[in-house]
Amino acid sequence: MDTEARVASLEARLDALAQRLEASENEARTLRRVVAMSSTRWLHWIRLERAAQAQEEQGGWPASSAEWNERRTAYWTDVALQSGLVALGSLRVNDESLFNPNVTVGDDFHTNGLFVHGAGEVRIGAHFHSGPHCHILTESHHYEGEALPYDAERILTTVTIGDNVWLGTGVMILPGVTIGDGAIIQAGSVVVRDIAPLAIAGGSPAVPFAARDAAHYERLAGPGDRG
Questions:
Q1: In what order do the strands lie in the sheet with 206-211?
Q2: Looking at the chain, which residues constitute the CATH 2.160.10.10 domain(s)?
Q3: Surface-to-core class of residue 43, CB atoms within 10 Å of its CB (0-12 exposed, 13-18 middle, 19+ buried)
């Protein structure tokens, strides 16, 4: 093999080695991202690639899962505000959520993942908390028109949620529902009708099966700091 051929062969091998090294570095970088998060969150990173890119632009990947959680919260809270959501006080959106400009939330709003579907109005009181993957539907289709299964008309409704309401993981609230102050909705429930204040409801459809102690609730919900 002449010198020119040997040089060409060596260059090809170097190029292949460089490509393998680059791939290995990408794999290591991804692994570092996964390890930086808690073990229960690593799959979630795939859905949050947009957030990851934004965080890197702010100066590198977080050094710990706690730092990642705070930066993720800052990102999704900012996304919520950019959607036009009206916040009447403090706001903490810990994970991917979806709002529209017709959503108004009270002070101390806290969600781990809430999706508002449709252009209808949503009014949420103070000290709200939800688990992840909760959904609020605000519009439905007109099935009594001149087309099947429904026509092009959209029926917009208002969903109202009172103060101190807690939604468990995976709750779905249908259009037009009102949930009273202090109510608790069990994880995985589908709320199809109004829920009274202080009720603890669950199931599909959700029905009350217990209630908060009224005196205990009133003592905590009165004037002063809340825990």
A1: 91-93, 109-111, 129-130, 166-167, 184-185, 199-203, 206-211
A2: 83-227
A3: exposed
Catalytic residues: 141
Residue 37, both tokens: 């998060």
Instruction: Report how far residue 59's alpha carbon sits from residue 41's, in angstroms, rounded to the nearest whole number.
Output: 21
Question: What number of other Cβ atoms are within 10 A of residue 128's Cβ?
Answer: 22
Handedness of CA 67, 62, 169, 101 (dihedral sign): positive
- Residue 32: is its pLDDT beyond 60? no
Whether the ω angle into residue 149 lies within 30 degrees of 0, i.e. cis, is yes
Q: Measure the CA angle with vertex 80, ends 76 and 83; round to 5°.
A: 135
Beta bridge partners of 161: 124, 179
Q: What is the rounded distance in angstroms from the CA atom of residue 118 to the CA atom of residue 115?
A: 10
- Nearest alpha-carbon partner for 173 in 94, 91, 109, 117: 117
CATH of 83-227, one of 2.160.10.10, 3.40.50.300, 3.30.160.40, 3.20.20.70: 2.160.10.10
Angular region, 148: left φ>0, alpha ψ -120 to 50, beta rest: beta
Length of the chain: 227
Strands in 172-173's sheet, in edge-to-edge order, are 114-117, 134-137, 172-173, 190-191
pLDDT digits (tens, 9 = 90+) for 33-79: 544 444 334 444 444 555 556 656 666 655 566 777 887 888 889 88
Beta strand pairing call for 178-179 and 158-161: parallel
